Amino acid sequence: MERNNKSKYEILVDLAKRRGIFWPAYEIYGGVAGFYDFGPVGLSIKNNIINEWRYHLIHSVDVNVLEIETPIITPRIVLKASGHEDHFTDPITECKSCGRVYRADHLIEEAINKKVEGLSMEELWKIIHEHNIRCPECGGELTKPKPALLLFKTEIGPYKGTKAYLRPETAQGMFINFKNLLNIARNKLPLGIAQIGRVGRNEISPRQGLLRLREFTIMELEFFFDPEKSYEEVMNILEKRKELRNERLNILTAKDKLEGKEETQTYTTIELIEENIVTNPWMAYWMAIGNKFLREIGIPINKIRFVEKLPEEKAHYSEQTFDQEVFTEKYGWFEVAGYSYRTTYDLRRHIEYSKADLTFFKRYEKPKKVKKKKIAPNPAKIKEIAGEKFPSVMKALSEMDKEHLLSELENNGYVIIQDVKIPESPFYVKEEEVLVHGEKIIPHVVEPSFGLERILYVVLENSLHITSDQKIVLKLPYRVAPYMVAVFPLVTGTKPEHVKMINLAKKIKEILISNRITVYYDEEGSIGKRYVRADEIGIPLAITVDYQSIEDNTVTIRYRDTREQKRIHIGEIIKEILSHFK
RNA sequence: GCGGCGGUCGUCUAGCCUGGACUAGGACGCCGGCCCUCCAAGCCGGAGAUCCCGGGUUCAAAUCCCGGCCGCCGCACCA
Predict the structure, then answer these.
(1) Within window 365-404 on A, which residues have Cβ closer than 7 Å to strand B?
(2) Looking at the C1' of nucleotide B53, which residue has the nearest alpha carbon?
(3) Which bases of chain B are contacted by protein, using any atom under 7 A from a CB?
(4) Residues 521-560 of A near strand B (Cβ < 7 Å)?
(5) Contact A8, A329 (CB under 8 A)
(6) Nucleotide nearest A169 (Cα, C1')
(7) Residue A113 — pLDDT band, cuts 50, 70, 90?
(8) With CB atoms 3.0 to 4.6 Å apart as the test, which of A5, A121, A495, A500 could cross-link to A550 if both were Cys?
(9) Is A310 helix (H, G, I), strand (E, B) or coil?
(10) CA atoms of A111 and A338, how far apart (whole Å)
């Protein structure tokens, strides 16, 4: 795989710039770490990956998934509710003599062996003082911890704006809109809400090119379901989808990690559920879908694994998390997707902060007859007891929770309102039998979340091949290739037959384009050079118009991966091309 | 953020140590022309470099010194 003694990574970075895939952003001003531009070829591949994701995670799944788009700029309250404002901040302390920077809480935990997570900066500072904690590298004095917020700050409105952040994930848009989408889905669970969009994370030190960006694209799905039904629902699907049931996933569990194991074990989807590897069956379902998605965009199965996060590694919202990792030549195993069981965390938090009703009304199969006590005050009698305080007592009574009032009276035989002791007698209490048709539940959530640029990188790395004659061929899966087909005239001279050849090639290009086939047309340089250019950006097929073409309306079609060619009639071109994109 | 190493046409690089004839050289790529039967052909011509940026030393800086930016590696960080 060596080409002039260069690594695959270096070859790819060169290629990416030369051929318009990607390059560092703001280059003419010296560049800014963590930001990349994408060229026409890169963008085309990205869009194709997005469409494959849509196919695998939205259109071809066995459940209802709806795609939405919500703003990037997010009012502070939303990320307060989601827990990001608190948890996306790390307390940082710096060594005064050597300048090394540490996570203050981690340092303290190591030094005094006590959990200090969630303590304020002041409290951490106090502990550092009391225990005389110093720089573990040079023994120098430490500075007072300060929060390093990884959210990008901004303001809404140019004058006295309200504080806002760039979203660090697209997920909150789905939680906020849960009720809207539930209505649109006509109140049916399970329900998936998907979003593909840009996010910002103000990383302390981004490196590793496309793999660690400050602004990137997330393809995310929030899947809402009733936990009591998840086993049955998933089993019904797997009954029908045998290939999905038997999809093989390479798994490294948290338990195995704690035992020091590094080798993955292979489980089928059904085994993940039956052996309780996943804490909810939907986790297994989406992991299987994600496994299949990556395989189909060109990642070999032996380079895909799922690694369960240890309790202390998990995000604040997650009950269980698996990272989906791909093996890269340069960085080893690298996370490209995460699967989190977020339970009711996010909806609960948004209910709490917004007071909105984000519940699902779960209808019983048969309405339940429930005996229900009703209570109402008798104003005349209350006036007798309360006297002057009557208006304020009545007001307080009307604002009081009726259930609470009932239980107080039942337990104590009286209730004290506005310092007035009221016995049971001034209340009308009536027992009624009512039909209850269902109850409000907060759905549980499983979230598969994919980093598009990371996926782009691993797809490119896995597609990169160097031929024995040192040429680059990007063997992209057909469906993610930047163009479906290249069209070339064999020669581009000025003789009448050359002109005919060029005109025929251009005509074929137009016919293909009008049939929605993406075409790369090129008549510059020799035919060999044009094949190389097409191979380098991974165009899987090439149509060449030659001397014979202008005699008998046949062309040659060349296959990128084998360099083989066959001759077909012009009328067969579209059918031949499309047969490879099914 | 710390330490080490590095940054020269689109790409790869020569030159830097030992400052001056460097108008910064080459290769590939790119553009124009000639030629034209299938895998980077050949010939002719051309465009293309803030020598990463800023400051300093010097008569003179791509070259030496300082600061910054960016990249790579290690440490730290990475809901």
Answers:
(1) none
(2) A30
(3) 1-3, 7, 10-12, 29-32, 34-41, 50, 52-53, 68-73, 75-79
(4) 524-529, 531-533, 544, 546-548, 555-556, 558
(5) yes
(6) B79
(7) low
(8) A500
(9) coil
(10) 32
Buried b (16+ CB within 10 A) or exposed e, A82-92: bebbeebebbb
Helix (H, G, I), strand (E, B) or coil at A315: coil
Separation CA A151–CA A168 (nearest Å): 7
Lowest mean pLDDT among A34-48, A87-101, A350-364: A87-101
Averaged pLDDT for residues A233-238: 96
Res A21: pLDDT? 94
Q: A465-475 in b/e burial notation, b at 16+ Cβ within 10 A?
A: eeeeeeebbbb
Q: Å from A105 (CA) to B15 (C1')?
A: 51
Distance CA A127, CA A110 (A): 12
CA A66 – CA A192 distance, rounded (Å): 6
User: What DSSP line would sit under A318-374, residue for residue?
Assistant: -SEEEEEEEEETTTEEEEEEEEEEEETHHHHHHHHHH-----EEEEEEEEEEEEEEE
* Tokens linked to A510: 């137009």
Average pLDDT over residues A391-397: 71
- Whose C1' is closest to the CA of A531: which nucleotide? B39
Specify the pLDDT at position A284.
97
- pLDDT of A2 > 70? The answer is no
Tokens of A30: 């010296």
Distance A355 CA to B77 C1' (A): 36
Residues sharing a CB contact under 8 Å with residue A300, sequence separation 6 or more, in sequence order = A462
End-to-end CA distance of chain A: 31
pLDDT band at A97 (very low <50, low <70, confident <90, very high): low
Q: Are the C-beta atoms of A219 and A50 separated by less than 8 Å?
A: yes
The answer to whether A136 CB is within 7 Å of strand B is no
pLDDT digits (tens, 9 = 90+) for A164-189: 999 999 999 999 999 999 999 999 99
For strand B, is any atom closer than 7 Å to the CB of A229? no
CA A25 to C1' B52, in angstroms, rounded, equals 15
CA A25 → C1' B24, Å? Answer: 28
3-state secondary structure of A176: helix
Helix (H) or strand (E) holding A296: helix A281-296
Beta pairing class for A162-166 and A153-156 = antiparallel
Q: What is the ipTM of this complex?
A: 0.85
Exposed, middle or buried, A42 (CB in 10 Å: 0-12/13-18/19+)? Answer: buried
Kindly calculate the radius of gyration of chain A based on its CA atoms and give it in whole angstroms: 32
